[in-house]
Specification:
Belongs to the CobB/CobQ family. GatD subfamily. The active site is at residues 94, 189. Keywords: Cell shape, Cell wall biogenesis/degradation, Glutamine amidotransferase, Hydrolase, Ligase, Peptidoglycan synthesis. The protein is of the alpha/beta class. It has a single domain, classed as 3-Layer(aba) Sandwich (Rossmann fold). It has seven helices and 13 strands. It has helices at 21-32, 63-73, 77-85, 95-98, 192-195, 197-211, 223-239, and strands at residues 2-9, 35-42, 55-58, 90-93, 103-105, 111-113, 121-137, 141-154, 161-165, 175-176, 178-180, 183-186, 188-189. α1 packs across α6. The termini are far apart. Bound molecules: glutamine. Glutamine binds next to α2, α4 and β8.
């Protein structure tokens, strides 16, 4: 059986609103392709290399936990940056997405340093952006999820798509997340992957491509996943 390994960074600090469900979804969709997904929890980064890593995942956390996690991850930020540049697929959620940038400004104006892996920043406000969100994506089709964040993120990179209901990166651009090489960052908790099989498969397929193993069959029966997605689409249309 083919195998992939996912590094789950800082699960002890970053796991808001069931972010762990993303790992479960990846495992399940990998199993459908006869691939075993090994999960390595990384809470301390001292001496860690990414040599054995095929995909990485970073969940969301409060401003406090985010600050602690940034400190820990800064020890391997060069390796993480090199892996992202080399096309390693990764998924980062909310706080985990924000700290890939240069800085995070808290609602009281305090500037917290980011990992500076990509050139963008986030500014937080007391008023939070919460609720169901629907996005139309050229790469993934319809994406659904739930957002809850004070941070407003501004960046020049590709996004996951256009927000048709909800907020996404900030109050005014109607765009959500980041898509840079095979790195995805998003404000969607809930978690995102069980609700969006296209994104789950994308991460696995990119990891397989990079490792030189098969991702077959490419199509599986997604009837139930699509029906579940439709529930959210119809719910937001009804409330509009
Ligand atoms: N700092 C984040 C915010 O913008 C934390 C929230 C999160 O990860 N859900 O509120």
């Amino acid at each position: 059986m083919n195998e992939l390994t996912i590094y789950h960074f800082m699960p002890d600090k970053l796991n808001l609103y069931s972010d762990i469900g993303n790992i479960i979804a990846l495992k399940q969709r990998a199993k459908l392709r006869n691939i075993k997904l090994n999960v390595v929890d990384v809470n301390e980064t001292e001496g860690i290399t990414l040599d054995g890593c095929d995909i990485f995942f970073i969940g969301g956390g409060s401003d406090r936990e985010q600050t602690l996690a940034t400190k820990e991850l800064s020890k391997i930020k060069n390796a993480l940056k090199a892996a992202i540049e080399d096309g390693m697929p990764g998924l980062t959620i909310c706080g985990g997405y924000q700290f890939l940038g240069t800085k995070y400004i808290t609602p009281d104006g305090t500037e917290l340093a980011g990992l500076d892996i990509l050139d963008f920043y986030t500014e937080s406000q007391k008023e939070r952006l919460t609720g169901d969100i629907v996005i139309q994506s050229e790469t993934f089709g319809t994406i659904v999820g739930f957002e809850n964040h004070g941070g407003r993120t501004y960046h020049p990179y590709g996004t996951l798509g256009k927000v048709t209901h909800g907020y996404g990166n900030n109050d005014d651009e109607a765009a959500e997340g980041i898509h840079y090489k095979n790195l995805l960052g998003t404000y969607l908790h809930g978690p995102i992957l069980p609700k969006n099989h296209e994104i789950t498969d994308y991460l696995l397929e990119k990891a397989c491509e990079r490792k030189g193993i098969e991702f077959e069959p490419k199509q599986v029966d997604n009837t139930e996943e699509e029906a579940a997605k439709q529930v959210i689409v119809e719910r937001v249309q009804k409330n509009n």
